[in-house]
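Below is how a single chain appears once it has passed through the pipeline. First comes the sequence as given, then the structure the pipeline wrote out for it. We keep one example in the README because the format questions we get most often are answered faster by looking than by reading.
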Amino acid sequence: MGDSAGGNIAYHLSLRLAHEDIKPLRVKGLVLIQPSFGGTLKGAEGSTCIGNRRLWRLALPPGAEMDHFFCNPTSQPPSTVQNLVLPRTAVLLGGLDRMHDKQHEFVTWLMSAKQDVELTEFKNATHGFYLFPRDDTPAFFEKVLYFIHRTEESKDSS
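Resulting structure:
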């Protein structure tokens, strides 16, 4: 489970674990809460660079651009992850999050790679909304708990 930058880290950890034998451990589920991804977003208005360039320069390898896979998984074709066995994934987004479009692009990309993804959007929520008491905060935590319990009870999860 990861929130914001932690969501990015949790996703990349799940990729790494898809290539590793960690028996007897196994990851049955992944919860990405408003995961922080950057890169170029191609929309009706053209291409827009999403994310804080200064922060990404600190995190990316020297010379890497904003469309590096660590920052922008969708810069790669979905086939990059299509044959990997990734855990069932819940992605929770805020409709008013400044990264919403990039996060949604990521979810669509994962779904096109035939990964098991469950998207929940909180229409009027900004980044980190669940940290403050709001009408939809209980629904957020209920959704996370429901996903965890349902995934924990699933016999077919790898």
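Residues 146 and 152 are 10 Å apart (CA to CA).

See the next section for the split statistics.
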